[in-house]
Design a protein that fits this description.
Elements (H helix, E strand, L loop, with lengths): L14 H9 L19 H11 L6 H11 L3 H4 L8 H10 L8 H9 L3 H13 L2 E2 H8 L5 H12 L3 E5 L9 E5 L1
Antiparallel strand pairs: 1-3, 2-3
Helix pairs in contact: 6-7, 7-8
């Protein structure tokens, strides 16, 4: 506390809560000085993390298989077993009903989003094909605009989807949505 000022640091992994209750909070409007998004590790950082912290003995090509599947989330590398092959690791983690990732997509949606079913429908529709937000809203029978735009905004801020502005057209701010 400096001169009667208070510094409050909030951090959390529940993306929808942090976005709705903190970043978009009317009570905090104009009071947020820094919004820091912690991104996943790069491939080089992930490899260094895996080999340093877990003493894993995977070759670079084996590591790349893991990285393409799991991304740069350090926690995920803790589940790898260097005593078995990459293929066995992937089978154990993703395809066995006891594997950590077997139900992970559902767990993420239901822990992150209050209206998980709606968010999941949006992501599944985007997964079928890249489409504009208007096409997406029509295909889901959800009115485009305010509430639907907020769904897309939250999914984008939570890094589930990426919005791309149309190039060379007067799009009126419309975007094409794609999975990350």
């Amino acid at each position: 506390m400096d001169g009667g000022k208070i510094m409050l640091v909030l951090c959390g992994s529940i993306a929808s809560f942090m976005i709705k209750q903190v970043i978009h909070s009317k009570a905090l409007y104009g009071r947020i000085d820094l919004e820091l998004l912690i991104k996943e590790l790069s491939p080089a950082e992930s490899y260094r993390h895996l080999t340093t912290n877990y003493r894993a003995r995977f070759g670079l090509d084996e590591f790349l298989r893991f990285y393409l599947i799991m991304g740069g989330i350090p926690k995920y590398y803790s589940f790898l077993d260097s005593r078995i092959s990459p293929v066995q690791n992937i089978e154990n983690l993703f395809f066995k009903n006891t594997g950590f990732f077997f139900n992970e997509p559902g767990k993420i949606f239901y822990s992150q989003f209050k209206e998980a079913i709606t968010y999941e429908k949006i992501v599944k529709a985007i997964q079928l094909r890249i489409q504009s937000s208007d096409e997406l809203a029509r295909s889901l029978k959800i009115p485009s605009g305010g509430r639907f735009s907020r769904y897309l905004d939250i999914l984008e801020k939570a890094r589930f989807i990426k919005g791309y502005s149309l190039f060379g057209k007067a799009s009126g701010g419309k975007k094409i949505q794609a999975l990350r």
